[in-house]
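Response to reviewer comment R2.3. The reviewers asked that we include at least one raw input/output pair. We reproduce the pair for Solute carrier family 25 member 7 here without editing.
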Amino acid sequence: MKQFYTRGTDNAGIGSQLMAGCTTGAMAVAFAQPTDMVKVQFRAQVRGAERVKRCSGTMDAYRTIGRTEGIRGLWKGCGPNITRNAIVNCSELVTYNIMTAFSAGFISTIVVFPVDVVKTWFMNCSAGKYNSTINCAVTMMRNEGPKAFYKGFMPSFLRLGSWNIVMFVTYEQIKMPVMRSQQSWESLI
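Raw output as returned:
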């Protein structure tokens, strides 16, 4: 589907990804709707006030629905189910993109923050307080413990996490036309 919406290129923008997600979700629902209908029927007979057992098993449920509502009855509620699945797929895709960028920001902050804190302390110290950045780091550890290396972590992470979301989403959107123009340029050579 992605290739259908991107016209065969490997780079899909968020719009193409959302459309591909909606289409594949719709196809999956259309295929699996009879099974969902049977599941709903079983839930209804368990939760119903009358608690009347309408079906004795899965195959009996398919037969009962087919007999009482016709073969089309197995696809009853397919439209709302497609809508539901499209919303699920889109929200998962958007969440995946945002969480990926946010996670990248979190991990980068964890990894780089101690170096950043030592750099800041060393740059802000009075002349002669530390004879090197290593001396600064060792003194911080000795005097304040490992927590000293993560002072101010949360504001820094929130800044970098939100910046990463904007940066990675923008990067993906800019990358596509650049790749297309590069491919066009290379085809001329």
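The radius of gyration is 28 Å. The chain has a mean pLDDT of 82. Further pairs are available on request from the corresponding author.
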